[in-house]
Amino acid sequence: MAITIREASSADAQLIVDLITELARYEQEEDSVKVTAADLYRQMTQERPPFACAIAENDGRAVGFALYFFAYSTWEGKQTLYLEDLYVSPEFRGTGAGAKLMGYLADVANERNCARFEWSVLDWNTAAIGFYNRIGAKPVAGWTRYRVDPKLIAC
Where along the chain do its domains lie? Predict the structure, then answer.
């Protein structure tokens, strides 16, 4: 089995939506997916796309993806790489596809001189937590992630 990693292009918009939907199904949130291939295509063809995506393939068949973007650390004064989603199809887990995707992103972070490479993981996803521990990642103690609908904030 030869897992390879490549950077996605706008031609992969439908493939990315399909993988996002697979991930959402795994997380029992399939109805939460609102993005379309047309949305991704439009975003990926902008002068400054809001995200990038790496695709894991086995003999030309997509078996996983890592969607990421760059943020900024005010304390470090450098960019950070934020992994929004990592997903490997169930039949390809344990093949090294996830590790290769993470290694690819680590290389991107190093090439861009990023201060950090970080992500969030669902508390119940013990398989992912175990994988992250095996590759040497550590949870960030003392932080709680928040989210708000911007329409709810009244100033």
Answer: 3-152
Class of the domain covering 3-152 = alpha beta
Query: Over the range 12-39, which residues count as b (16 or more CB within 10 Å of their CB) and which as e?
Result: bbebbbebbebbbeeeeeeeeeeeeeee
**Tokens representing residue 138 in the block:** 């550590």
Length of the chain: 155
DSSP H or E stretch at residue 117: strand 116-119
DSSP SS3 for 52: strand
The pLDDT tens digits of the residues spanning 121-152 come to 999 999 999 999 999 999 999 998 898 988 89
3-state secondary structure of 1: coil
Q: What's the predicted TM-score (pTM) here?
A: 0.93
Q: Which 8-state DSSP code applies to residue 46?
A: S
Active site residues: 132
